Amino acid sequence: MAILTLSRVHQTGSPEIGQAVADQLGYDFVDKFCIYDNLRAAGEKWGKLAQELDEERPQLWEKYDREYRGFIALIESTIYHYAAKDRAVILGRGSAFLLHDIPQVLKVRLHAPLGVRIERVMLNEQVDRKTAEALIEKTDKSRAGYVLAIYGKQLKDIENYDLSFNTGIQTYAQVTQNLVEILKGWDQRATAEGRQRLNNRALTAKVKARLYTSPELFIPSLEIFHDGSAIVLKGLIHDPKEYHLIEAVAREESGGYPVRNELHYR
């Protein structure tokens, strides 16, 4: 089946459209509440971090902070988990870039004129025009900054998407119906190679999230990736205990999938 990612600027109807598409097709709807629930399941502190840092551009120090790396790893693992299940609508959080080369993923961008969005904020939030405009500017800037910092991509670049919809012209119901009809045939784009690539990445992301959030492990140089045949562990460690512990955790989390340990001592 197909997967839909929705990228958006503020107040373009993404929650309403995403939920409606998911309901009509029987898909999972992966929004902030779903992600928060998954992060809380990994530990209460991760749920709190999600509420504080969700789609916010990280400060330079945060990008290399242990907790922030774990936070991002958990979000990516959640996105990959639902994508690998198929039949998912995933809202924002760089999902279009994580899944950019998976054929059955329909990548959509929602936009609308600023004036329309200001009116929506004023109506929905019961604020004046100046406050509405400031809220839109802050939200759009934060989301774009998050994607640029984490994935090195410009969120607004239309070449990153398969389709775009102007919800200032089309109603939410019209966009929903268009997406439902497109998605019914989009799964025909799926390939065995693409599905395998997605499954490999989902398992690798699961291992990465476990290692990055394990309190007994802190290896700043640790890299975890899939090379096409195995999950690879690379980085500098200090002693044999770290070496064996990282490998043991990775093998446990991978469930017997091949893991190649390329860690070495400083």
The N- to C-terminal Cα distance equals 46 Å
Residue fraction in strands: 15-25%
Q: Could you say what the CATH topology of the largest domain is called?
A: Rossmann fold
- Specify the CATH class of the largest domain: Alpha Beta
Low-confidence stretches: none
Sketch the topology as an H/E string, one letter per element: EHEHHHHEHEHHEHHEEHE
Number of strands: 8
Strand order of the largest sheet: 2-3-1-4-5
Computed Rg = 20 Å
Mean pLDDT: 90
The biggest beta sheet reads:
5 strands, parallel
> What overall form do the CA principal axes indicate?
globular
Class by SSE composition:
alpha/beta
Number of helices: 11
Question: Could you explain the architecture of this structure?
Answer:
By secondary structure, the protein is α/β, with parallel strands linked by helices. The chain folds into two domains: 3-190, Rossmann fold (3-Layer(aba) Sandwich), CATH 3.40.50; 193-261, Alpha-Beta Plaits (2-Layer Sandwich). The chain has eleven helices and eight strands. The chain has helices at residues 14-25, 32-42, 44-53, 60-63, 66-85, 95-98, 114-125, 129-151, 172-186, 192-213, 240-254; strands spanning 3-8, 28-30, 88-91, 105-111, 163-166, 223-226, 231-237, 259-265. Strand 6 (223-226) and strand 7 form a beta hairpin. Helix 7 crosses helix 8 (129-151). The radius of gyration is 20 Å and the shape is globular. The model has no long low-confidence stretch (mean pLDDT 90).
